[in-house]
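Possible regression after last week's pipeline update?

I re-ran a chain I had predicted before the update to compare outputs. Posting the input and the new output here so someone can diff against the archived version. Not blocking, just want to make sure nothing changed silently.
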Amino acid sequence: MADLLRDLRLALRQALQNPGFTLAAVLTLALGIGAATAIFSLVDAILLRPLPFAEQDRLISVWGEIVPRGQHHVEVSLADYAGWRDGNHVLSGLALVTTNDSDVAMTGRGEPLHVRARLTSDNLFAVLGAEALLGRTFLPGQEDRPGTSVVLLSHRFWQRHFAADPAAVGQKILLDGEPHLIVGVMPREFRYPDDADLWTTLSGIYAVPDLRDLRIFHAVGRLKPGVTQKQAEQDLLR
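New output (post-update):
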């Protein structure tokens, strides 16, 4: 997916838009890791109500904050994510998704199509508590397995371009010339973080050094069972 990697390298020069849902900053926590701290905000349950997420009140959004520059609510990098994921004691899971869509060429099914893709960590759907309508979501460690590029289709895209055929699961498509296995179709109401056509994993990106520090991701986490806002704040500020 050379074109997609190119898009990622150019991402810092683009005018980044807000993600597909707004956050209520009812909880702000700082986690001093590297050059940036992290802002944790509970996701606004009202705005997420139409989405099929389990225990929405335990979902939090994670943004970067670069204090010396006075920058708040900035996108996070892979390096930020690795530190926060491994250094916290209050989250049962932390996941990533690219803030903006990437324009990807899909071939292998008649006329080429330009589709809107989001790259995610393999645990995004597990953290959200979202399940596939058909097939499955991504498996743990999927993004680290060479030669196993997989993709999830949105319900709308599946209807328009696969005629709502359940047999689409298990087929292969080409994204920017690289084969991807369709492993599932998401429910009609799933639109996170917006109306993407498909989702694929971060496979191959970790191996590209100059991509690790690009702030092009939004992070979402889930509080561990029994962890309150106050307990989370105390833990993260230690």
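Follow-up from reviewer: compared with the archived run. Residues 8-36, 42-50 have pLDDT under 50 and may be disordered. Marking as no regression found.
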